[in-house]
Amino acid sequence: MSSTVILFGDLMSQPTRAVIWFMMLNKIPHEFRLISIGNLEQRSKEFEKINPFKKLPVIQYENQTIFESHTILRWLSQQFKLPQYYDFNDLNNRCKVDMYLDWHHLGLRKATAGYFFQKFILPKFGKSESEDMVKDAELNIPRAFKEIESIFLANGKNDYLIGENVTIADFSCYCEINQLEVLNYDFTPYPILSNWMERMKQFEGFKESHKIIHKIASQPKL
Amino acid sequence: MSDKKIILYGDLVSQPVRAVYWFLVINNIEFEFKEVLLGKKEARTDEYSKINPLQKMPALKYKGDIYIESHNILRFLSQEFNLNQYYGETLKEKTKVDTYLDWHHLGIRTFAQSLFAQKYLMPKFGTGLYNDKNLNAEEGVPLGLKQIESVFLKNGENKYIVGDHLTIADFSCYCELKQLDGINYDFTPYKSIQKWRKLMESLDGYKETNIKINEVASSHQ
């Protein structure tokens, strides 16, 4: 079995970007296999055999298949001995990272991914948005951003989400938020968040992992 | 030091509070339970915000530190109290538990929580209170249940969520599904889930943990 990580995903997917960026930054040998969301390839019978949840990303390594991006990021940090991102020797450090990772799904992603789906994906398929879902997101995205600023970034005292150092939490969070640039989302009310976003862009692998989303973001808006 | 004692903040009508409470009881970990009543919106008070600025429950205090997010708390307790069987000894075992825990939020909780809000909380307390009108809950809950049945329980091949032994994933999953008893949700199409639920209900601490939600369930008949 190969000791290269095989990553199944699509750079349009936030969690796929978080995982590939993390591997690029840490020079973890990997092979990328595109599962095109636009063609609904993640729902194919073939892909279902790899991930029965029909979601991206998935990695395979030796004879292990792992899905759920946070599980993958925790696994990569431990398997490839990168304790600075998720410290397998320090339970309290892991708890801080885990606190963010657990909060992320319903605290941030539900609103941001829901909003993106309503505003970007549905129109592509000629469908109209759900007013309730948009309203829900418009209420919850600002709430989430304020919580990230005041609690995780500690009103600017923290350079990164859980303190002075970048961890796997930052990659997950960044890739989720960055998606909204496609919709020209206004980040000016969130200067602390914006500063952190600038800081994240300095990490190796950023450009490469975001090339598709940047291309879409730079296209003229209707 | 007196703060070596665990303080758990929460309300037993909350699914994740029950998961943590049950885990503490079953492992005979000494703790003090401080009720933060959801019905009275006590999680939104300034006082509670000092404990958990995210204004959610549960929160757990131990040796002066505060732990937030139920999965984080369950992982922490398993490791701090050397209950490694519940989270896993090896990276491979932990990864299996993590997969369920990470899937849980958007795989089942968001839908189960919305359905409960739509069918129980909104009619009882008015629509203005809850902005979470997740329109897909009626479809999302059966989809999540089928996935638990086929992917995690492997149609009965697995005794528990990640295999043949009990882990923290089971407590989280059980407590989320239990909420649906409050709206008389029909679990009969899910044979493996039903069997697994019975198994969970035979564990120590079940009755005590679920007393409030069982009251809700019986009043809704």
From TrEMBL, chain A:
InterPro entries: Glutathione-S-Trfase_C-like, Glutathione-S-Trfase_C_sf, Glutathione_S-Trfase, Glutathione_S-Trfase_N, GST_C, GST_C_Theta, GST_N_Theta, GST_Theta. One of its GO terms (biological process) is glutathione metabolic process. Residues 90-222 form the GST C-terminal domain. It holds the Pfam family GST_N_2. GO terms for molecular function: glutathione transferase activity. The keyword Cytoplasm applies. One of its GO terms (cellular component) is cytoplasm. It is found in: Cytoplasm. Its main location: cytoplasm. Transmembrane segments: none annotated. Keywords: Cytoplasm, Transferase. Residues 3-84 form the GST N-terminal domain. The keyword Membrane does not apply. Belongs to the GST superfamily. Theta family. This is Glutathione S-transferase. It comes from Dictyostelium firmibasis.
UniProtKB/TrEMBL annotation, chain B:
Signal peptide: none annotated. It is found in: Cytoplasm. Its main location: cytoplasm. The keyword Ubl conjugation does not apply. Residues 4-85 form the GST N-terminal domain. GO terms for molecular function: glutathione transferase activity. GO terms for biological process: glutathione metabolic process. Residues 90-221 form the GST C-terminal domain. One of its GO terms (cellular component) is cytoplasm. The keyword Protein biosynthesis does not apply. Keywords: Cytoplasm, Transferase. It comes from the Eukaryota. This is Glutathione S-transferase. It comes from Dictyostelium firmibasis.
